[in-house]
Amino acid sequence: MNSVMFKRLVAAFGLVMVCVSAWALTDKQIAEVESRIQPAGKVCLQGDNTCGAAVASAGGAAKSGEEVYKSSCQGCHATGAGGAPKLGDVADWGKRAEKGVDTLHKHAIEGFSDIGMMPAKGLCMSCSDEEVMAAVDYILENSK
Ligand code: HEC
């Protein structure tokens, strides 16, 4: 290797090092590394939306009534399968609402069988009671 080639090599190597270190030091990169090295069980303070995704995946954030309805109830309640009162059927839901919202909440959580088979929690075993009640409210809201 002659000296010119060697100098070029050193210069090229230097350039690469400058690029690498500049890349490594951008704020974005540092932030990314910091987020990766955070402990998995990091406490999320309420109102801190920077770790909201972690809370949701841990089951912390409640699903809305509409979300629960769409994922767990509409299979029967959109079509009327097995005698399920259809969403939007004002007459059918009107009759049921006469029992009182509390009773409808209870029947949705525990299950109910009169003319058909309403399974407990609409088979959404991961749903909290509150989420099932919110789904009932969503159905009633859209059936009057
Ligand atoms: C496998 C089908 C099925 C699924 C899934 C289902 N339901 Fe039902 N649901 C029924 C049937 C059938 C009835 C009618 C039962 C009867 O009157 O005998 C019913 C009735 C109800 C009633 C009325 C109870 C009463 O006292 O009249 C409510 C409230 C209700 N469902 C809420 C829900 C909610 C909320 C979900 C989702 C979390 C859900 N259902 C999912 C089939 C289903």
TrEMBL record:
Looking up SUPFAM superfamilies in the UniProt record yields:
Cytochrome c
Keyword Lipoprotein applies? no
Domain (Cytochrome c) spans: 60-143
Report TM segments: none
For this UniProt record, the keywords arranged alphabetically read as follows: Electron transport, Heme, Iron, Metal-binding, Signal, Transport
A UniProt-annotated Pfam family: Cytochrome_CBB3
Does the UniProt entry include the keyword Lipid metabolism? no
Top-level taxon of the source organism: Bacteria
* Residues in the signal sequence: 1-24
Q: Name one GO molecular function term.
A: electron transfer activity
Protein name (database record): Cytochrome c-555
